[in-house]
Amino acid sequence: MAATVLTEDVARKAKIELAEAGKGDRAVHQLMTTYRANRRSGSANTKTRGEVSATGKKPFRQKGTGRARAGGNASPIQRGGGVVFGPRPRDYSKKMPKGMRRLAFRRALSARIASEDVIMVDAFVVADGKTKRFVQELSAITDEGPVLIIGDQFEESTYLAGRNYQDALLTTAADVNAEQVLSFGKIVITEGALEGLAKRTAK
């Protein structure tokens, strides 16, 4: 399969909208923050004095001991007592307008194309479903990695061949996101995916 670097001129001929340098950088940052925030489980939890397992018995008499009065063992100042202002389960997820997401994706893809990190191939198919063959086909395109492979769609045998290879990820033009575009060392795009990327980057 013939492999060529996807230039800005070729991208424009494929009707892929490119963002100018500096335009959309803030949107990219906000989108990365959104992705990471949405992956947070928010399950950190501490018990208050009303939730800890403790007796309601007064630990020692009110007067005569020289110590500060205490009414129970659940107090935050007692060992094993409740926690004051500790973390509670919460939702960290964020929402981002669709237009800003589109701008961030456009800017991320534009930056990778400008850096000559995007390689275009006719197609990427591993008919026998073997990981060894998958690695050979990928090595014929680029020796750098990890590699993001974007296609219109892939055959089941190609997914089967690539699922056990950690230095590559197969995804479609409809599913790829800006974080993936920025995270991989090289990006391989099939000709069939150009139309889908053009729709994703359209203003």
Sum this structure up briefly.
The protein is an alpha/beta fold. Helices cover 34% and strands 11% of the residues.
Provide the descriptors you would attach to this structure in a database record.
203 residues, alpha/beta, elongated, five-stranded mixed sheet, 7 helices
Tell me what you see in this structure.
The chain has 203 residues and is an alpha/beta fold. The protein is built from seven helices and five strands, in the order βαααβαβαβαβα. The chain is elongated and about 90 Å long.
Which of globular, elongated, flat, extended, rod-shaped describes the shape? elongated
How do the SSEs run, as a string of H and E? Answer: EHHHEHEHEHEH
Radius of gyration: 27 Å
The total of beta strands comes to 5
C-alpha termini separation: 32 Å
Biggest sheet overview: 5 strands, mixed
Low-confidence stretches: none
Total DSSP helices: 7
The main sheet orders its strands as 1-2-5-3-4
Which structural category fits the helices and strands? alpha/beta
How large is the share of residues in beta strands?
5-15%
Question: Would you spell out the secondary-structure blueprint of this structure?
Answer:
Blueprint lengths: L2 E3 L2 H6 L11 H15 L58 H17 L3 E4 L9 H11 L5 E5 L4 H7 L5 E5 L5 H6 L2 E5 L3 H8 L2
Parallel strand pairs: 2-5, 3-4, 3-5
Antiparallel strand pairs: 1-2
